[in-house]
Amino acid sequence: MIRDGDSRGRDGRAHAASPEELPRQVQRRLAEAVVLPTAVEDQLDVVDALVELGLDRVAAMAAVEQDRVPLVLLDELLGASDESLTLEQMADAVGVPFSVLSEIRQAMGFAAGLGLTQDDRRWAELTASLLSQFTPESVIRATRGRATGLSAVVASDLMLLREEIVLPLRQRGVGDLTVAVALAEAAAPLEAVAREMVGIGYVQTLRHVLGSELAATIVRSRVTEVTLAVGFVDLVGYTAMSARIGQDDLQDVLDAFESRAVELVSANKEVAIVKFLGDAVMLISADPLELARVMLDFTTEVEALADSPVRGGMSHGPVLVREGDYYGSPVNTAARLTDLARTWGLLADESLDVTLGARFTTRRMRSTRLRGLPTQRPVALLGLREDVWADG
């Protein structure tokens, strides 16, 4: 329920808190949630709460009966869909063929004409602007990549709401429908903050990437493939460990692993995280020496990962860059070398022997056949040659 102190516009609907107000509002709503109706069978109180938040009574009753209160409330707070809007009308308005606009929307993971809002109208205008400069095929590929990233952002934010709002309320014994009301109220200010943070974060990330040799290498390439260094680091024995320990302990392990990866990469702008793969992380760099340096640090035993050791593998060569991901033989080789590496070990492709030997202490391994790849003699990285790094 919206209480005194919540801002309302002239339409009588609740408006999002400013970023400065957000922490106070979330804490206040958590404290007040215990006085909301807790009896699930007292559904009229919940219907009244939904009406107060802006739903009409018929929609509120349907939401309660169908046990879809969280979804309906969140959708209402984000801006209800307008049944009069169609994708065909938007396509005509912005001068883009309907088939093209429909395919781009599908690349975002959405059905062609369901739940359109005024935000979708603006999206169509921006898409038309992109299509005036780039081919539809390029825009579709970029949209798929962007959608994957945004889905991860949304999933992460929903987990934040679950951990900080939903679970504490459930532990107090608050009923399901009341939890939904409290969740929707807390999500309203969070949505406004998230919108702004995504925009700012995009610019910050773009500037960081533009200053790297990785971006320069990709831009200056004259062919489709780009020569890069690729690496993986994974948690040793993850499958057995995840079956042995509880979910809370597993989350601690993954938090420590991901934090270590971010810590090391953030200190070296020439190395980037491509993605986390559950129990592994994929890294990329234009410079195999910089990638090896980060990966050697990562595969050096530290207290934070004492109970969850790691290993790594890296390779170097031409890769296909597509939708924010990387494909090709070096990627496959790095993955196979990671599987082959010992605990706290780091293996590199044999083609990097001379390059890495100039800056690292290395040892050639015996010939090994990698699954699906030619036989080779990998290079084990043992440590930095401190005298060489100090000189340059």
Question: What report would you give on this structure?
Answer:
Helix 2 (43-52) crosses helix 3 (57-65). By secondary structure, the chain is α+β, with helices and mostly antiparallel strands. It has helices at residues 22-32, 43-52, 57-65, 69-78, 87-94, 98-107, 118-131, 136-171, 176-210, 213-220, 238-244, 247-266, 288-298, 329-340, 353-357, 386-391, and strands at residues 225-235, 271-276, 280-285, 310-322, 325-327, 346-348, 360-364, 368-369, 375-376, 379-384. The model is unreliable at 1-23 and 33-41 (pLDDT under 50).
Quick recap:
With 392 residues, the protein is α+β, with helices and mostly antiparallel strands. The protein has helices at 22-32, 43-52, 57-65, 69-78, 87-94, 98-107, 118-131, 136-171, 176-210, 213-220, 238-244, 247-266, 288-298, 329-340, 353-357, 386-391; strands at residues 225-235, 271-276, 280-285, 310-322, 325-327, 346-348, 360-364, 368-369, 375-376, 379-384.
Which helices and strands appear, and what pairs or packs with what?
Layout: H1 22-32, H2 43-52, H3 57-65, H4 69-78, H5 87-94, H6 98-107, H7 118-131, H8 136-171, H9 176-210, H10 213-220, E1 225-235, H11 238-244, H12 247-266, E2 271-276, E3 280-285, H13 288-298, E4 310-322, E5 325-327, H14 329-340, E6 346-348, H15 353-357, E7 360-364, E8 368-369, E9 375-376, E10 379-384, H16 386-391
Parallel strand pairs: 4-6
Antiparallel strand pairs: 1-3, 1-4, 2-3, 4-5, 6-10, 7-10, 8-9
